[in-house]
From TrEMBL:
Catalyzes the phosphorolysis of diverse nucleosides, yielding D-ribose 1-phosphate and the respective free bases. Can use uridine, adenosine, guanosine, cytidine, thymidine, inosine and xanthosine as substrates. Also catalyzes the reverse reactions. The keyword Acetylation does not apply. Keywords: Glycosyltransferase, Transferase. It comes from Corallincola platygyrae. This is Pyrimidine/purine nucleoside phosphorylase. Pfam families: Ppnp. The gene is ppnP. Its EC number is 2.4.2.1, 2.4.2.2.
Length: 105
């Protein structure tokens, strides 16, 4: 998706890993939310309370999802799901642009 209509944007950035990962929250009229962000190359571990859909709009990363032993390569135009109450690892090999949607359980 290239454009979101009729949304509210939280201007304060979420900053992680000494500024190597940043995002901003977008809230839709129906109350759902997403974050739009950028990740610089590096290795990261994230935790989530709710299930998430991670859409990679540009860039390349490898993902290790909970309970998996094989890394999954994800490139721009692809996505992956993360279950709620879980941790997942990322190896970002180039500047990566993403959209994270928080899903209902």
């Amino acid at each position: 998706m290239e454009k979101f209509e009729n949304v509210s944007v939280t201007t304060k950035a979420n900053v992680y890993f000494d500024g190597k990962v940043t995002s901003r929250a977008v809230t839709f009229a129906n109350g759902s939310s997403k974050t739009l962000g950028i990740m610089l190359p590096g290795e990261y571990e994230f935790g989530t309370d709710k299930p998430e859909l991670m859409e990679i709009t540009a860039g390349v990363m490898d993902v290790l999802l909970p309970g998996q032993s094989e890394w999954l390569r994800v490139v721009g135009g692809e996505s992956f799901n993360v279950p709620g109450n879980a941790k997942f690892q990322l190896k970002v090999s180039e500047l990566t642009d993403y959209i994270c949607s928080f899903l209902d359980e």
